[in-house]
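Handoff note, outgoing to incoming analyst
You'll be picking up this chain. Sequence as last confirmed:
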Amino acid sequence: MHNKYQDIQNTKANFDTTGTDWRTKEFSHPERLIRVGTSFSGIGAIEHALHRLGLNFQIQFAGDIDPDCKTAYFANYDIDENRWHTDIHDFSAKPFLNQIDLFVGGAPCQAFSMRGKRGGFEDTRGTLFSEFARVVIECKPKVFIFENVKGMLNHDKGNTWKVIKQTFEEDCDYDVYYQILNGRNYGIPQSRDRIYCIGFRRETDFKYPAPIPLQECMYDFLEQVVDSKYLLKERGVHFITEAVNHEKSYTQINGEVMLCQKRNQQFNWHGDFVFHPALLEDKTNPDNDDYLYRIADYETDYYATKNLARYAVRFDDRNRLHLLNDSSVKIATDRGRYRKLTPRECHRLMGFDDTFRIVVPDTAAYKQAGNSIIVDVLIALLRQMDITQYGI
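Most recent structure output, in case you need it:
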């Protein structure tokens, strides 16, 4: 289908400006069952979005090549082996023809070039995007959501996205919309721009949900009790407190809005960290303590701002950090401890509430959070399109 509402260069003109808040929209058929298919499923962002909304849904198929993702997925959703695909190249969606209400995926898009003047699906052969498009063609979902990095719009002077859009509209025969959305505009304090491309099997006049004011900051997503293993050693502290990393926005400490999560951010010291000031009653000598560092030893007092007292912690007899959450506590703003975010905090900052079970080692958990789609953005999209009208 030809999209008469947008062109390649226009990604800002399709928001709902009627004044209706998508958060207050009621689902027209909340009793209906939504049949879901996902590929490149990760830890199931759309599945968790439907769970948080309290809607009835059934997973028809899902898959991911990462075995840790499979472990996490099976621990959290109702699925069995015969509905799971590991390698999408080996998966046929033909048995699910006209049995999928919503298909979602964030296929990693390797670069591809236009060959000749054909364009469309033939130009994407051999890429993971072509596999996503193939699944759309084979099962013909009522709606699909394709998520990707915003840089895809400008790759190869816009030609790459032109081919993707043409494939969805002409080869798949869908009414296609796309928009760059940022998680911080939909309730999650994380600056994460992503393309959300939505295709409707029937022609639809769709407007994207309007941004809402951000009411929470990263502090509101912190755990109240944290294991001391997340404290940084001296090498990590030196790295994250180098002024150059803050100037280039590689690293921030006690930030209000999280930097965009990445799969390896917790292990290369680029990303978000927390500084916990020492209590005045803590007389530990910083020169003899591997964990206690003086702000004066580094180049900036950047960390001694933004309600620092609320980050104060007390250690228990198991050496765990307990967030005091007490603005009246007496603190020493010139010394304290630095730590990375925990896997649970990273999941919260992707919109996964604490009902989501984290069952993989930390390394895998950080990777899964960084690779996921922000759940709250998906919730906004599902409400805006009234996903229940497509159920059965």
